[in-house]
Write a structure and sequence with these properties.
The radius of gyration is 21 Å and the shape is globular. Helix content is 26%, strand content 25%. The chain is of the alpha+beta class and 371 residues long. The strands form four sheets. It has an eight-stranded antiparallel beta sheet with strand order 14-11-13-12-16-17-15-18. Strands 4-5-9-7-8 form a five-stranded antiparallel beta sheet. It starts with a helix and ends in a 15-residue tail after the last helix.
């Protein structure tokens, strides 16, 4: 590997510094452009190097563990390339932190509607993980706002899919294909996102019954349940928000008081039909914390100490509804499959991956079924 490391350094410059929290890798490179990333991946493909793309590291707990040969860090690709406030679009590089993007968009009272408490998450990481914020109830999942992507594929090509317009129905839907692919197809080098204007005012209303809140409120941003209670999140004109708050009847607080994400030794995400959200909460085996998105069907919960067998029943039930239960975080050796039953589309997914990454170097074995 020493000779290979020397060759890589000669071709692509000195190695980047090791990344805190990342798995050890013989090569750590931080490209500055998608074209440079493509050349690195061509090199990785030629030499059969297992590659992991690393942004903020906040979604790396998903899937089977990988021991990479090459860590491809996106921190030097962190620019806002183009922002068109009047067209409600923005083009960014993958290493841009979500918090930095939202702070910039706030100057024009706009939002990319990415996760509300992103921590160190980057835009590329959120798109690669297919992660959505709690405002998904009103605005839909993140994949619906990815208008265009430029990808460095596993075999070193630069591929563009979609277009920088809100309405676009031509060509293959590569933006949706790479959203949630967990870096298994290539490195997302640039992404165009659809934006939304923020409401004139926002409030958080405590409610007793989340189902009734969804019936009463007109297009709330979210209705969330935690161990401390249920809350409806509203945005709009002052008159609209005041009227909805009064109709809901609970205590009203100004602003959006989003909960913290559940954290702990083991964190799971239960995804079920929206009508089964309350049942999913009831079936949680004594969580230390949880956040349930009513109307969406996603419940995230954390456990500081739990036997894997206690989660198997929850997974069986979730899968019986057509949903799933996946591990978001767990210690090494935790005896529970991170994904559960592989999807019936596994063969199709395998063929798609082969089209982007014929040598199988991108995040090998991370996806369901060990894909």
């Amino acid at each position: 590997m020493t000779a290979l490391r020397s060759t890589a350094a000669r071709l692509f410059g000195e190695m980047a510094d090791p990344v805190e929290g990342a798995p050890p890798a013989d090569l750590v490179l931080a490209p500055t452009t998608v074209e440079e990333a493509a050349r690195i991946l061509d090199f990785a493909s030629e030499h059969g190097l297992a590659v992991v793309v690393w942004g903020g590291g906040t979604h790396q707990g998903l899937g089977y563990r990988i021991e990479p040969d090459l860590l491809l860090v996106t921190t030097r690709m962190d620019r806002i390339v183009d922002w068109q406030p009047d067209d409600l679009t923005v083009v960014v590089e993958p290493g841009l932190p979500v918090a930095a993007l939202e702070a910039r968009l706030d100057e024009r009272s706009q939002s990319a509607v990415l996760p509300e408490r992103p921590g160190a998450a980057t835009v590329g990481g959120v798109v690669a993980a297919g992660a959505s914020g709690w405002r998904r109830y009103r605005y839909g999942p993140t994949r619906d706002r990815v208008l265009e992507v430029v990808v460095a594929t596993g075999d070193g090509r630069v591929v563009r899919g979609g277009a920088q317009v809100v309405k676009n129905v031509t060509g293959y839907d590569i933006p949706r294909l790479v959203t949630g692919s967990l870096g298994s197809l290539g490195l997302i080098g640039r992404v165009c996102l659809k934006l939304w204007p923020k409401g004139e005012t926002t409030t958080t209303v405590r409610v007793d019954d989340p189902s009734r809140a969804l019936e009463i409120a007109y297009r709330p941003l979210a209705v969330l349940e935690t161990a401390t209670g249920c809350f409806a999140y509203l945005a709009g004109t002052e008159r609209e928000v005041a009227a909805q708050g009064a109709a809901l009847g609970g205590s009203v607080q100004e602003g959006l008081l989003w909960p913290e994400h559940p954290t702990g030794e083991v964190v799971v995400s239960v995804r079920v039909p929206p009508a089964s959200t309350a049942e999913a909460v009831r079936r949680l085996p004594a969580p230390d914390s949880f956040v349930a998105g009513h109307g969406v069907g996603e419940v995230n919960a954390s456990f500081d100490s739990i036997n894997p067998s206690e989660l198997e029943g929850l997974r069986d039930w979730a899968e019986s509804t057509g949903g799933a239960m996946v591990l978001l975080a767990a210690p090494d050796g935790f005896a529970l499959d991170p994904w559960g039953t592989p999807p019936q589309t596994l063969d199709l997914q395998r063929r798609i991956k082969a089209g982007f990454d014929p040598a199988g170097v991108m995040a090998p074995g991370r996806l369901p079924g060990g894909l």
